[in-house]
Amino acid sequence: MTIKNSRNFDFVIVGAGPAGLTAGIVAAREGFKVAVLEKGEQAGPKPRGEGMGYYSIVDDILGKDFLPSIGIKSNGGRVWHSPGDLQTTTTFREYPHYFFEWRTFIDRFVERATEVGVEILLKSEVIKPIEKNGLCVGVRYKDNSGDTNEIYGKAILDCSGYSGVIGRHYGVPYDEKINCPIVKCLISEANIDMKETPDLNFYFIGNGDLDYSPNFPQCVAYIFPLEDKRVEVGLMLRMAQVPQMKTVVIPTSDEIMKVWGNLKKSYPGFSDFFKGAKIDYEEVTYLPNARMVENFVPFPGVVLIGDSAGFVNPFGSSGLYYSMEMADFWVKNIVEKMKKEEIIWSSENIEDYKTLFQNYEVYKEVIELYNLIGAFEYKIFNRLRTAEKINKKWDYISSLLKQAS
Fold first, then answer.
1. Terminus of the chain with fewer CB atoms < 10 Å: N or C?
2. Buried b (16+ CB within 10 A) or exposed e, 133-157
3. What are the pLDDT digits (tens) for 172-186?
4. How many CA atoms lie within 13 A of 37 on its CB side?
5. Predicted TM-score of the model (pTM)
6. CB of 9 closer than 8 Å to CB of 33
7. 3-state class of 116 per DSSP?
8. What gap in Å lies between CA 112 and CA 347, rounded to an integer?
9. CA dist., res. 405 & res. 400, Å (int)
10. Looking at domain 6-67+101-175+291-368, does it have CATH number 1.10.1040.10?
């Protein structure tokens, strides 16, 4: 194989999403040489709506008050609908939360990264990690011309999301244990009045509830208001309990889209939002929210960050805040070792990184969320399972939802 180019950096980061760009910004601010590889034509290439809480790290990375300047402030409400939309429960979160357009958000990351000297290599698809003497020292990738290149670094961070390029190479079971299928859809001219419906809406659908697909996995359809009559809608398949459920058959992407089509047309309450709406974007993709990756350092020299590590909020299935925090934490701790030691990936240092992270409050918060949703989904989707039983126990489920919020 002919290698076209070979270059050296301190940090080599795979994926130009919020995790990768946060990592790049933090490392570059410390004076280190950083490259971010992104296989798409632009950072965060796929369209979507988004929302996140307004935390101090957002100001630190994107600039003070940037998030409020681009977003619509939420009242923190989440409306949970029982199967068939027979009952509802509303919960509230008190911290500031904003809905916004993805492109404006991610472009700000690129702007800030460029300001501090991060080199972003677009149309660069990572093929495999490069190892030397028991250490991952870089990655091999193809550029937009189809040429094969190598890029070397003292630390390799995989922030490539549910596809987990480096994580897959080192045996992380994304498809079997981490990822959940999701339909993501953006609509305009939706049948919605933002003043009357400013909240996120979630519709529980149990296994066996759909006559036209009785073996379909338990899932949650959602409504995510952005602005005016523009809304992200979708369907999250909840797969964590599936291995223990004999009544579920894992669907293909085509089967998921058939179910999705029926839900848009006729599911009580949910289908109302689609009346007169225009679909701007729609696809089946994945969210890494069934469980966390067991080992964030699958090989010396490599760290899995954010979605690549399943480090998300499994209730709202959002990883923005948590991926930014995780990137910030790991880069700062690696930087500290780089400044003091020549060998930063000794077994002692790796254990030190892991111990520090496990004592980190944000890590403990994510662990608690996974524990909560594990117990929640076992009780609702495995033990109760059907619409009739879930509706009968809705008061109990409401109490669990309020506890989680």
1. N
2. eebbbbbbbbbeeeeebbbbbbbbb
3. 999 989 999 999 999
4. 31
5. 0.93
6. yes
7. coil
8. 34
9. 9
10. no
